[in-house]
Amino acid sequence: MSNAPVVAAVDGSDHSLKALEWARTEALRRGAPLVVAHVLPDSAQLYAARRSSLADPSQPQEHPDPVGEHVRDLLARAPELPAEVRYESLEGSVPEALRVTAEEALMVVMGSRGRGGFAALLLGSNSRAVASSAVCPVVVVPHAERSAEAGDGPSGGRVVLGLHAAETADDVVAFAFEEAAARGTTVQVVSAYAIPPAPVTVVDAPFQVIPPEGLADDGNAVPAEREMLRSQTERLAPFRARWPQVPVEQAAAPGDAAERLVTASRSAALVVVGRHHPRRSLGSLMIGSVAHAVLHHAHGPVAVVPTLPDGA
Fold first, then answer.
1. Is 113 domain-assigned?
2. How do residues 73-84 score in pLDDT, each as one tens digit?
3. SUPFAM superfamilies, alphabetically (predicted)?
4. Of 116, 144, 172, which one is at a domain's C-terminal end?
5. For residue range 287-309, what is the model confidence (pLDDT) as tens digits?
6. Domain tally for the chain?
7. List of long-range contacts for 207-216, beta carbons under 8 Å, 24+ apart
8. What would the pLDDT profile of 166-198 be if each residue is shown by its tens digit?
């Protein structure tokens, strides 16, 4: 889709307005239209249904929409806007309305929480539902309390890709490379491997980042780590050829993949994960344990990328 828009889902909350700013910048970076989507509150939807059923011309055409007015005012004061900006008022439940909008989108950008729910929750039910079922990538932008300082440089940090060499779909890897290319930054590829427990275990040791050209077989690396890095290199080869301008760093570490990605999110511009393991899930509406954990605990934006059936 050459003219697919970046969709920002807003509800007037601070979380959604932060996501709107992220989406505005992303649309500019991608040269894409920006669609600001707001699901009307129940009161407005009931009013529209009542007016339609009664066909009373004396009633106002539309119910007041303060969220739409507020967002338009904010965008009017933005330093720069994409060439095309549209505002859409949607009806229905939030997840279903956004799923329909996502069918024509480059990506959907949401805040981690909306107006509803408990303040202590890290991820709102609507964000989780859309990330679990949309047919396009969904970027969840965390609220301010969870945000970390961006990485060094004008790009605002690396794009971090969580990779299982045998199971992560091409769509996921390609999205990470596209993002890095658009930002002029590096893709850091993070994989985790299991090791048997040792008598002495170093807790929370940082993982080592190795460029592909540094994978000399000197026999000093942990065999599982060496094999993981070689699997990464083989898996990434076609993407490095397609995006030769994108620097790649490879990291393999023992332990839990989600934990490593959450740690990396502290200095990342974006963390990219697949929605699920294609071999293990029961269908495209499932969300895997790694994506679920990263969405709940990451300190920066997370892109959850679905795997679509062939021909979709």
1. yes
2. 999 999 999 999
3. Adenine nucleotide alpha hydrolases-like
4. 144
5. 788 999 999 899 999 999 998 65
6. 2
7. 207/251, 207/252, 207/253, 207/260, 208/251, 208/252, 208/253, 209/249, 209/250, 209/251, 210/249, 210/250, 210/251, 210/252, 211/248, 211/249, 211/250, 212/236, 212/240, 212/248, 212/250, 215/250
8. 999 999 999 999 999 999 999 999 999 876 555
